[in-house]
């Protein structure tokens, strides 16, 4: 299965139904991982952090990150 990021880089965001299908698959995978942890009594006192490398918003020009964090 394709990841959200790789699909968007290849095809863009114009095919919303395919994009939602991939998001649902990623959500399913996280659910499977949590189920595995619970079945094996590994869920108690755990912290699950899900991160991403960037958002999925289309921008027309690069953001100047330095200007965002200047005091």
Summarize the structure in words.
There is one protein chain. The protein contains three helices and no strands. It has helices at 4-11, 16-39, 65-69.
Summary keywords:
71 residues, mainly alpha, flat
By DSSP (H or I, 4+ residues per run), the number of helices equals 3
Strand content: under 5%
Overall geometry comes to: flat
How widely separated are the two ends?
43 Å
Uncertain spans: none
Q: Let me know the largest β-sheet.
A: none
Average pLDDT, all residues? 78
What structural class should be given to the helix and strand makeup? mainly alpha
Proportion of residues in helical segments: 40-55%
Order of helices and strands: HHH
Number of strands: 0
Radius of gyration: 17 Å
| Assembly type | single chain
At a glance:
By secondary structure, the chain is mostly helical. The chain has helices spanning 4-11, 16-39, 65-69.
Set down the secondary structure blueprint:
Blueprint: H1 4-11, H2 16-39, H3 65-69
């Amino acid at each position: 299965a394709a990841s959200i990021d790789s699909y968007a880089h290849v095809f863009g965001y114009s095919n919303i139904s395919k994009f939602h299908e991939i998001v649902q698959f990623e959500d399913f995978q996280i659910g499977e991982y949590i189920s595995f942890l619970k079945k094996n009594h590994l869920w108690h006192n755990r912290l699950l952090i899900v991160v991403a490398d960037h958002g999925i918003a289309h921008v027309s020009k690069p953001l100047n990150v330095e200007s965002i964090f200047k005091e």
